[in-house]
Design goal:
With 329 residues, this protein is mainly alpha-helical. The chain has 11 helices and no strands.
Length: 329
Amino acid sequence: MGPLTLAINSKNSSMSSSDVSNVKAQRLQMIPKKSFASVSIGEDKPFDFLKTLFEGFIAGGTAGVVVETALYPIDTIKTRLQAARGGGKIVLQGLYSGLAGNLVGVLPASALFVGVYEPTKQKLLKLFPENLSAVAHLTAGAIGGVAASLIRVPTEVVKQRLQTGQFSSATDAVRLIVAKEGFKGLYAGYGSFLLRDLPFDAIQFCIYEQLRIGYKLAARRDLHDPENAAIGAFAGAITGAITTPLDVIKTRLMIQGSGNQYKGIVDCVQTIVREEGPPALLKGIGPRVLWIGIGGSIFFGVLERTKKILAERRAKPLKDQSSESTKQD
């Protein structure tokens, strides 16, 4: 870049200050931008934590509700497969049992996850070198998962007990769980939930973000909605398959109720393997991979579209102000 500047100066040593500014602007445009951040909106502007948090809430909540509503029946079948012992039959009635109550928890949980993930990710990407972007995505995913677990776990406990026919409504489920097991009953299987969801969130979002980076570099453009959806489906399916054993353990611990059949995570694994064999840890892998694969497609597709709409709405007033300023000049 140095020789280019000298050549320009030697041809016209009497450049005005505005000309010099134009040269500097051209030089800045020639500097490649960092490609590791999945959200390029406002990268050259000061980091606005609250705005990123707010937009993450909206995008995450929207994506979470759409996915949960569309794929709830597959999730119900998966839960019943995992809960069945021995040759127990799977009931295919009431596949939407508990959906309304579940959405009450899914909306804030998804909103909280993305609301925490996005600003955390952007902050870490500014702190970490470019070759450690995967670490930033993994860390942000885990932090977002911890925050969302405070809402996700009670929601999951109520949902899965409704799916397995233990209660007739979400209100009855909450009331009876608290009456029989205390408030801690709503957090049954919390440790196994974190054991499953922290690696799941971290791995899924890391795979998704890294694939988007590679695809964008190859295509040399922003991705279209179908492309984001396809990458989300792949990331979800792979992560869902890897974490199926953790999901089985979490399901068994959450639905055991006050009987306390399992003493903890280790005892749960040992009991399942002893009584049903190691393959039981992969119960429901088919519906789970299908559910999360399709869910990843919908979730990330809706997420990126919502983020894009919010970014365009945010940029429009600035564009209008710029146009007004130009007219006045």
